[in-house]
């Protein structure tokens, strides 16, 4: 209780002491402080108002920016939609264009392969053929019998003699070679016109190819222009041959395709296995400091080996053997004591995988043939398949079919014209390619012997068409209609067609000369044939015409 009274007294005293009326002078600045406070409050209010305006302005700018971003996003979205639509139309247009291009190429190739289906389709001859008096059936038959048919027996005897001697020469070559270091030579094969029975011009020359392989433990690994690797246009039809160890994986590592630094080492291959002495690779007939087989080195080795082999067996024969042509290293000539001679070509080749396509080191050159890119590029020959195709088709043709006769006559006419006006860009291989295309295009019955005149005109028309378009496609490369019985490698059938007349596009001078020679041959056809034809009475000729009508 006393404590409570004491607390009340203290409160009352405190209230009296702090009453403002008791100290009027000390509180005289209250009004002045109040005005100052009010002034500060107004300033604060003004600053707050300015801050509010600033914030409102920032909010407005942010809203404007947001709207702009939203609008830009809408524009981008619309652009994407338009781009998607445009890309779709572009892709669709591209697909349509590709389909049209594929159809056009198929259509052209179809017409090319079916060129013999209708004679009107091939009637594209120039002015030189118009008004030409072409020899009739009787004149052609007499010419063929008198000038060409008699050479068949000579070719057979020559083939037999050359093949027997070549086998003996190669056997001696194997005996003089080092089996552990030199190339292994296989048996030779006959190819070309002499073995397809359409050679007409003398001197007769047998073409023999000799496959060879490296000594163990090495092997050949080849790359061709149509295998997917990038080959320039001037290297189409060529390939390269790499000499590798049989246990070497040339596709699994890139250490031999790129230059490693001096301080870098391939973890898959030791230095001993990847680096071979230069002398070792040169002994394997490779180009200097490479693993690629060198055609020039191969021909030098082959010439030396043939010379050694001939020295070993020369005492058995009563003739001499020599190399006949400098620009054809495999050209050999047998010289008898009587003065007569026989020429033949013995050319080393490399087999492509397990097929009968071969890389050939050298082949006869012509004015149209482009220069070989390098001595490590080997040309591919399909001569074995060409011979097989002719044999296969001949079984389905009528007896005494005229396909070989047409080729022989055309080859004779062209050879005679070139002897008068000089060489042209056409070769016998081009003429044979024309026959191969027509053999595939025309039905079997069209090659009956009595249709010799019509088929010969077809070949001339087809050749004129090719010259006009500067396009004569290789028969096998890019031809999907090759008979399956031949076992022809599918990689070549799927390849792009190989134009044998491509050099005409680059060499206009040779093209002009070739066309002029061809037209001149057409104008001289009757004269060239009549020169070697026994005179046929007019009445007999008219009788034949009446029978044919």
Automatic annotation (TrEMBL):
Gene Ontology molecular function: protein kinase inhibitor activity
Domain of life according to the entry: Eukaryota
Free-text function comment from the UniProt entry: Enhances Ca(2+)-mediated inhibition of inositol 1,4,5-triphosphate receptor (ITPR) Ca(2+) release.
Membrane topology according to the record: Single-pass type I membrane protein
A Gene Ontology term for the protein's cellular component: plasma membrane
Keyword field: Cell membrane, Coiled coil, Glycoprotein, Membrane, Nucleus, Signal, Transmembrane, Transmembrane helix
Signal sequence region: 1-15
Cellular compartments annotated: Cell membrane; Nucleus outer membrane
Coiled-coil annotated spans: 31-82
Family membership noted in the UniProt record: Belongs to the ITPRIP family.
Chain ranges of the Mab-21-like HhH/H2TH-like domain: 404-477
Stated name of the protein: Inositol 1,4,5-trisphosphate receptor-interacting protein
